[in-house]
Amino acid sequence: MSWLHMLVPSASQLAQMPAQLLIGLINGSFYAMLSLGLAVIFGLLNIVNFSHGAQYMMGAFVAYTLLNVLGVGYWPSLLLVPILVGIVGMLIERIFLRWIYRLDPLYGLLLTFGLTLIIEGLFRQGFNSSGVPYGMPPEFRGGINLGFIFLPYYRAWVIVASIIVCLGVWFLIERTRLGAYLRAATENPALVQAFGINVPRLITLTYGFGVALAAFAGVMAAPMQNVSPLMGSNIIIVVFAVVVIGGMGSILGSIVSGFLLGLVEGLTKVFYPEAASTAIFAIMAIVLLLKPAGLFGKAR
């Protein structure tokens, strides 16, 4: 494809643009939700949680198991699954991660990478690599014709739910007393402990909350794709790129960059489809060259 064709879009490309932007917004919703959990864990605990993708996958499989074994439907799963997987996350933090907080973040990356391999291996043994289907909730069957694309109701719900969750978490961390305690506990734990706050418990709950966000995204993804042990591995590298671009630990940066990069990915599929899978990483490289802390990050 010549540079002229890229700079001067054809009529067919212009016709595809609204549909691809909408698809990009849907993908960006998942990027934002997943990068949000990563940002919470890194920003408040300084841990690069490579097992985030496995915990996202775990959320989808727990929803599948609840539906097919206990008959628990989609709506209760949106509440129950984040709690259950979040508890697993808190156990991981208490058993493994508490010993490495004062070490280089590389140790956390290596430990959580090992946990990812273990979790994925266990689910491959239990469900095999091909995965299993999760039925579409009856309330979201069908869709609406927007003229340029047929938008399934469920995908519209994904966008709305993602925006609500992202704004809610941002408000919790940045605008409430609990968020202030969390931020203070990472900067001066001894001072916060002096005020009678149990800092270790606060840290455990924070990690569990970040894991719960990944599990919530897994439940949201289950009706849209085959629930597979590899579904986390397929998206986590892109999500890490989103977090780096937004700024490691920046809640607002993760939200904004998640949605924007989903849109950029959609536009790239219109103008230069061959680069769609690498566009986000090219942007990451440029951002790191110009602003190493990320668009919204602060130098540490």
Description:
It is a single chain. With 300 residues, the protein is mostly helical. It has one domain: Orthogonal Bundle (ABC transporter involved in vitamin B12 uptake, BtuC), CATH 1.10.3470. It is built from twelve helices and two strands. The protein has a two-stranded antiparallel ribbon. It starts with a helix and ends in a 10-residue tail after the last helix.
In short:
This protein is mostly helical and 300 residues long. The protein is built from twelve helices and two strands; from the N terminus they run H-H-H-H-H-E-E-H-H-H-H-H-H-H. The chain has helices spanning 3-7, 11-45, 52-70, 74-95, 105-127, 153-175, 177-187, 189-194, 199-221, 233-246, 251-271, 279-290, and strands spanning 143-145, 150-152.
Topology:
Layout lengths: L2 H5 L3 H35 L6 H19 L3 H22 L9 H23 L15 E3 L4 E3 H23 L1 H11 L1 H6 L4 H23 L11 H14 L4 H21 L7 H12 L10
Antiparallel strand pairs: 1-2
Helix pairs in contact: 2-6, 2-9, 2-10, 2-11, 3-4, 3-5, 3-9, 4-9, 6-7, 10-11, 10-12
